[in-house]
Design a protein that fits this description.
This protein is mainly α. The protein is 64% helix and 6% strand. The radius of gyration is 34 Å and the shape is flat.
Length: 926
């Protein structure tokens, strides 16, 4: 489900999609001259603002409207070649369109002009050229000339524009120019001002996108809805300039740090200097000259030093202070740098990243060392606390290794869990450059943690493998088990199954004693999919494990409780929780204590006991942000916070590291798919099902698939999916999660007349509920008895239990099912409808409206209902449902669906299902 977007992907989402510009800009640009319209238009913007893209899009639109479009891209060479640009443009005019002799005469006249003439004869010749151009293009109208990089036009070519504009005023003729706002455009500014004053030219400024507009642009470019953190990062480094945004997207794609999950885009991690930015961005810097180029590269590292950068830079490059300041002024004039107090900053931070990558290795280390030396000596100060450790990591052996190592460790310790700071590179520098073995081992341990925070699994594996294979003897008995477990976890997360299999089979030993090796083999066996096999291994070696270190004993307890819950036995979990509650705070290492509480909470949430999980967290002082992402999803889902829950789920799915916690991982996927079903996103739900069904609890996804099939009227298939779920659970020896499957199977069997099957499922559900003793299982049993046996006392108890548990979605579903069976519909249906509205569960609300009408219960707010039905229809159309399927969902006829679709498309302005789907994907509709 997580798609690492390809660098080769289209830069504007779907092939052929029109780029996004500020509102109305393209409409203004893509116009041809005529009565009352100036024949000239000038697009002006900062480098990377998107002038070229506007020209391209305008040309495409004008050609589609039947205009003849001539294109010219000026270059620096044109500035030195009088009339060269004009000659090249006219050479492109279709030979067959104007009379050949007129075209030949015009080219000859331009060639003659380029050889020079006196001022008086020059004015006459320019007028004659303008007249000749008019005579040539009158055979081609309507005509639009597109001129890119217009700041490079020579004075001769530009001078022709004024008489040409006067002669073509009112005709179906336009010249659209795009120019950068930089010093190279200054010589032509008097001409543009004069033409504007005469009403012959329209100025069309291209301003950078706002943060919101950047988000819309990113969505179109990626073809998915960007997460807010992705928008913030790209906007901050690109400053809203379209070309820079595209370069940043491309760089994150090539770094495999941008992923698309469930049609939403996320950053796996923020990247700094290691972001692989295309060097093509630096063309304008190179144009500024050799001195400016060298100073710009150096400033990419030294700009944060403020006014002290001049002295450091001059000494490092061997330049005089005057030369440095002249180069800095040139960069300011080129609008690459901007004054910032007494120092300077890059207008576009992405440009600084590209310049850092342009530094040679030694050049980079030398500049970094100069910055470190200046700060250590007190000759420079910086406000950014990450600047000094970044430069120490860059400088390598050019600075005092001992001091740098100690300071890097201190800085990393302060920012270890901050995902916005790359403490991992500081720690990697310590590992690679410090001789002290104690410091090096501690750096490796911290490096594992920092890389986990940043989702950098290959680096986690690299450092944990170093620790396990080469430094295990130097790790304490309290530290080694956690290190080995982290190593195994990453092997499982990134799919290194061969090595995991060798460890599981005892062919590849792990460090530590016999107990350590047994525990490692058990976890490796479980992560290979044989959880019960791992439990048998622990049972076979219970004698060796009895005398194990406490931390190993806790790992055994964690494994056993999980395995027991898989089999429907919560007694081990209850004992684990009781023992944990009796341990005084501080009696165990903090990390060990936290991991034990997190495991307890993880299993409770997977069993549907969110209220008890919160109580455990409160007693243990564990805040929600310390939980793994799948468990945070389950808490948000239980509270009815679907939007935030789904955002957490997608972020979690973007990284395989969370898959090593099978309970929360599978439960999260199954519930996320149900969220999609009840919101009308059936195709997306089925993609989540495909993603999750190969895990250890694949039968849970047969259950979810049955819900999707039922919505679409595929009743037989839905029933078969439920039967398959129970068979697969039995084959695996698992009971976990079968309470909800058996409840649904009993009802479906009863509805279809398979009463023996229904009774069998109900009997088995009663046994499961008795073994689990959880509120969710008890609620499933009460609800099923109420539906199958018309048991009013069970129905009333189900209502009370659902309200006591206080989970909005669970209450909405329970109340709707009871009411559909005739239990207190006038009371329960409006409450279920309100709860579903708070979830924005469009499809669940639509089905509730149908049940309400059947039971004579008024549906509130007719206008809101109409709007909601249209939203649901748009969602289902975007999901690819056929008219027949739409009719099934809305419980109406295909003819009625056709009418609804016609009215909807007429109102929203989209011409096809494909256009609507694309608009919903990027957030332009809905």
């Amino acid at each position: 489900m997580a798609v690492h977007t390809s660098a080769a992907s289209s830069s504007i989402g779907e092939p052929g999609a029109e780029p996004m510009f500020r509102e109305g800009l393209l409409d203004q640009a893509a116009t041809v001259g005529g009565p009352g319209r100036p024949p000239l238009a000038l697009l002006v913007g900062e480098p990377g603002a998107g002038g070229s893209a506007v020209l391209t899009a305008a040309g495409r639109r004008l050609e589609a409207d039947g205009c003849r479009v001539l294109r010219l891209t000026a270059s620096k060479q044109d500035k030195r070649t009088p009339y060269g640009a004009l000659y090249r443009l006219l050479s492109e005019v279709d030979r067959a369109a104007p009379p050949d002799q007129e075209r030949a005469a015009l080219l000859g006249l331009v060639a003659k002009l380029s050889r020079g003439a006196g001022s008086d004869s020059l004015r006459v010749a320019v007028e004659q050229v303008a007249l000749s151009i008019r005579n040539v293009v009158r055979h081609l109208l309507p005509v639009v000339v597109l001129v890119d990089e217009a700041q490079w036009l020579d004075h001769g070519t530009a001078a022709v524009l004024e008489p040409l504009a006067r002669r073509m005023a009112g005709a179906r003729f336009s010249v659209l120019l795009a120019a950068r706002a930089d010093p190279d455009a200054a010589p032509l500014e008097p001409l543009w001002n004069r033409l504007s004053a005469q009403g012959l030219l329209r100025a069309l400024p291209i301003r950078p996108f706002s943060r919101t507009e950047s988000g819309q642009f990113i969505a179109r470019s990626i073809g998915a809805k960007p997460n807010v953190h992705l928008i913030d990062e790209l906007y901050d480094i690109a400053r809203g300039r379209p070309a820079m945004l595209l370069a940043a997207i491309d760089a994150y794609r090539r770094a495999d740090a941008l992923v698309v999950v469930d049609q939403h885009a996320y950053l796996l991690r923020k990247l700094g200097p290691e972001l692989p930015v295309d060097g093509a961005l630096l063309a304008q810097v190179r144009e500024a000259g050799d001195a400016a180029w060298s100073v710009a590269k150096a400033m990419s590292l030294l700009a944060p030093l403020g006014p002290h950068a001049v002295d450091v830079l001059a000494a490092a490059l061997g330049l005089a202070e005057r030369e440095v300041r002249e180069a800095l002024e040139a960069l300011v004039q080129q609008r690459l740098l901007a004054p910032d107090g007494a120092g300077w900053r890059f207008r576009v931070p992405l440009l600084a990243t590209a310049l850092q990558r342009a530094l040679g290795p030694y050049e980079h280390r030398k500049l970094a060392a100069a910055a470190v030396t200046a700060i250590w000596a007190g000759a420079a100060q910086v406000a950014d606390p990450a600047y000094l450790p970044d430069r120490m990591a860059d400088a390598g052996t050019l600075v005092d290794g001992r001091r740098a190592g100690e300071e890097l460790m201190a800085h990393a310790g302060n920012r270890l869990l901050d995902p916005n700071v790359d403490a991992s590179r500081w720690l990697r520098a310590v590992v690679e450059r410090v001789d002290d073995p104690v410091l090096r081992i501690e750096a490796l341990r911290r490096h594992v943690i920092a890389c986990l925070v940043r989702n950098d699994l290959p680096e986690v594996l690299r450092s944990s493998r170093l620790l396990v294979r080469h430094h295990a003897g130097e790790l304490s008995p309290q530290i080694l088990p956690g290190t080995v477990l982290a190593y195994l976890m990453v092997l499982a997360a990134i799919g290194e199954h061969d090595e995991l299999r060798r460890i599981a089979q005892g062919e590849q030993a792990v460090p530590g004693g016999a107990a350590q090796r047994i525990v490692a083999r058990a976890f490796a066996t479980g992560w290979l999919g044989d959880w019960l096999g791992g439990e048998r291994l622990l049972d076979e070696h219970s004698t060796e494990l009895a005398a194990a270190e406490p931390v190993l004993g806790q790992q055994v307890d964690i494994y056993r409780t999980g395995s027991a819950v898989m089999q429907g036995d919560v007694a081990e979990l209850r004992r684990f929780g009781t023992a944990l509650a009796e341990v005084p705070r501080g009696a165990e290492p903090h990390s060990q204590w936290v991991e034990a509480i997190r495991h307890h909470v993880d299993l409770l949430l997977a069993l549907g006991e969110a209220r008890e999980a919160r109580q455990v967290m409160e007693r243990g002082g564990l805040t929600e942000d310390r939980l793994v992402l799948p468990d945070r999803f389950l808490l948000h889902h239980a509270r009815g916070e679907w939007t935030s829950a789904m955002d957490i789920a997608r972020r979690c799915m973007s990284s395989p590291v969370h898959g090593v916690r099978p309970f929360a991982w599978a439960t999260m996927h199954a519930l996320a798919a149900q969220v999609h079903i009840d919101s009308g996103m059936l195709s997306r739900a089925r993609r989540l099902v495909e993603m999750g069904k190969d895990g250890p609890f694949g039968y849970l996804f047969d259950f979810t698939e049955s819900l999707a099939s039922h919505v679409l009227g595929e009743l037989h298939q839905s029933h078969e999916h439920l039967r398959t779920a129970i068979v697969r659970a039995d084959e695996a020896g698992f009971t976990f999660g079968t309470d909800v499957v058996l409840a649904e199977l009993a009802h479906r069997a009863h509805t279809s007349g398979s009463f023996d099957e229904a009774a069998g499922a109900l009997h088995r559900l009663a046994e499961v509920a008795a073994r689990l003793g959880t509120g969710r299982a008890e609620l499933a049993l009460l609800l099923t008895r109420a539906r199958l046996e018309s048991d009013e006392s069970a129905a009333a108890a189900a209502v009370d239990l659902a309200r006591e548990r206080g989970e909005p979605y669970e209450m909405a579903v329970t109340f709707s099912k009871l009411a559909a069976g005739g239990h207190r519909p006038a009371e329960l249906l409006p409450e279920a409808y309100r709860l579903a509205g708070g979830l924005d569960a469009l499809l669940l609300r639509a089905r509730l409206r149908h049940v309400m009408r059947q039971n004579g219960v008024p549906v509130p707010d007719r206008a809101a209902t109409t709007s909601e039905n249209e939203r649901l229809l748009a969602v289902l159309v975007a999901e690819g449902l056929s008219n027949r399927q739409l009719a099934t969902v809305f419980a109406t006829t295909e003819k009625s669906v056709e009418g609804r679709l016609t009215r909807m498309f007429a109102r929203i302005g989209y011409r096809s299902r494909v256009e609507l789907a694309a608009a919903m994907l990027t957030g332009d509709f809905g």
